[in-house]
Amino acid sequence: xxxxxxxxxxxxxxxxxxxxxILPFNxxxxxxALLTDDDVATLKHLAQEGMGENTLRxxxxxxxxxxxxxxxxxxAPLPWPxxxxxxxxxxxxxxxxxxxxxxxPAHGMPADxxxxxxxxxxxxxxxxxxxxxxxxxxxxxxxxxxxRGLSGAFGAPSLKSALRLAVxxxxxxxxxxxxxxxxxxxxxxxxEACAGDRLVDARDRALLLAAFASGGRRxxxxxxxxxxxxxxxxxxxxxxxxxxxxxxxxxxxxxxxxKTAAADDDEHVLLVGRPVTALKxxxxxxxxxxxxxxxxxxxWGNVDRRALTPQSINLILKARCEQAxxxxxxxxAHGLRSGYLTExxxxxxxxxxxxxxxxxxSVTQAASYYNNAERxxxxxxx
Length: 382
Known about the structure:
Elements: H1 8-16, H2 28-34, H3 37-48, H4 53-74, H5 84-94, H6 98-103, H7 111-119, H8 131-147, H9 157-170, H10 184-193, H11 199-213, H12 219-224, E1 230-237, E2 247-256, E3 267-272, H13 274-285, E4 295-297, E5 303-307, H14 310-323, H15 334-346, H16 351-358, H17 363-377
Antiparallel strand pairs: 1-2, 2-3, 4-5
Helix pairs in contact: 1-2, 1-3, 3-4, 4-7, 4-8, 5-9, 10-14, 11-13, 11-15, 15-16, 15-17
């Protein structure tokens, strides 16, 4: 019996199996073809160092894109460290002026590079990249360079100048992650869409209420929530100023290390009233006593042991939007986060109080929702 030696790509695919809890399985083979052995070793090292799953997933995706782009643009693998000229070429290929491109087809990304990236399904949208995407990929490139013990030209004045001029030339407005916020009126319609008696309805009611009322949690935080992160608290009064007001159930949710938290932070938020009831009802009906809170349910109503993925959270919200007669294209899971702050602004809740629940670190970012609400409700625009 002859043993056929595995190809380098097959070997890398097997190495990536160790990261299957982090990297999407349907992209494993594609990443194995795009990445080098050193790239895979770096990703495994980062995973062992305890880097957050979302960060590692983004790094792997960006690294795959950079390797593919470099091969097509230069005919060679991604060099480490990258020379300044290559970084400038990356900016020129991704941030360009659409008006000048109409006059000069050579401006921006070369046609053969664009065709190659589209064939790999790595490039989908027409036009220049969003400035935020380009800056994120450059940041990923810089992080991976440092983790290899190298230093690159990412702080070079020429690169900073090129980025500033290219962002201005691309003239692409910053897009919100969700075109519309899921405010209370929208949330009410979504809850009406999952008002049935099925197990999936109980799950989606609990998911939407808990994600919104806990400060507009990110979809990754909702997917990562475990029963062990929930703790009963003393009931609170519906009206804290009235000792005769009815008590409401209260639950604390430990979020641990969030996107903006430091490694030793142990963030937690409170859940009060109806969301607590919905969450406990779901756990009781699904007979979930430990492990992931929100899980997959098959077509026969069987509850899986595996947690929902962040992407599943997004798809659930969009499906409920469609059932509620709303346009799914206008909403995403991030709409729950922006909707919470928008609703808080509409109700004149002080910004610092809302940020205690949403756990926004940036006052500027959180205040933007308040500014929008004030402008719409104010007299100046009327």
